[in-house]
Amino acid sequence: MADEFKGLEFERPVFELEKKIADLRKAAGEPHPHDDVSLIDLDKEIINLEHKCAALRQDIYSNLKPPQRFQLARHPKRPYSLDYIAHIFTDFTELHGDRSFADDKALVTGFGMLDNTTFMIIAQQKGRTLQESMERNFGMMHPEGYRKALRMMKMAEKFHKPIITFIDTMGAFPGLGAEERGQAEAIARNLREMSALEVPVICVVLGEGGSGGALGIGVGDKILMLENAYYSVITPEGCASILFHDAGKAAEAAEAMKITANNLYEFKVIDEIIPEPLGGAHRDVKETANNIKTAILKHYAGLSKMSGPQIQKARYNKYRILGNFEE
What we know:
This protein is of the alpha/beta class. It folds into 2 domains: 8-63; 75-320, 2-enoyl-CoA Hydratase, Chain A, domain 1. Helix content is 48%, strand content 15%. It has 14 helices and 8 strands. It has helices spanning 12-29, 39-61, 66-73, 81-88, 130-135, 143-158, 176-180, 183-195, 211-215, 236-243, 250-257, 261-266, 285-303, 308-320; strands at residues 90-95, 107-114, 117-124, 163-169, 201-210, 222-226, 230-232, 272-274. Strands 1, 2, 3, 4, 5, 6, 7 and 8 form an 8-stranded mixed beta sheet that branches. A hairpin with a 2-residue loop joins strand 2 and strand 3. The radius of gyration is 22 Å and the shape is globular.
């Protein structure tokens, strides 16, 4: 199904050129019994089209508007947490369950090695196929997921291991069962407990950072964000439904909400924007993973020199100064 994807609307001209280049390369590689097709002419045409395509990519992807970045954050081929874990960490050992109700598959947790340091990894995970999406609940965590996350955070603190969280969710699951099992309480408890952890916590927003679903694993010493991700109290569709009574005005809402990495860096909500390859993270997963790895190691280098109480105090001060207040 993913192979049939023809690109987002704003990037269709790029896809069409890339297809034309691919067709010409195929034609150039096939035998031509007659002289009516010149391989030299084909090669020249391919080179010309490649230059044109490169310029078009630069023009489109260097001037993306918030609604377009929002679309890239939800791109069907965008890498998910496990894709990055495989590229960034070694010896990843997954740990399961909240020791109370169940193992929430929307959250992947475990220990992994990065440059001879063991990190606790807590990552929201979506599914690629329909079956996987159902199993992962589309990356939307239940209360047991947040309780599993907290159990792993406390384990990391006990063994003095730094924590990395990968955020990628539309929001916490809003179903009846989740509410009955204390969804709001589970998220609120995580906010409180994460604020007091005495080990470094680095949070990375990979794609979607939706509301309390993201915040439940998003209280960190450093908040990093991929270039085309978004981080918001509500999805643009939800905002448009409330404010304009029309979910179709999501693009207008996305412009007004200031939910892109550039906006949030300007407001000092996040600490660093991690660059993506031109066209989005799916264009080169390895390059994106290397960029994330570099950012993590850079920020961990400073945090690793701090004591537990120093980390607590710095984290407290970080959140106290967020926002502007008027009386």
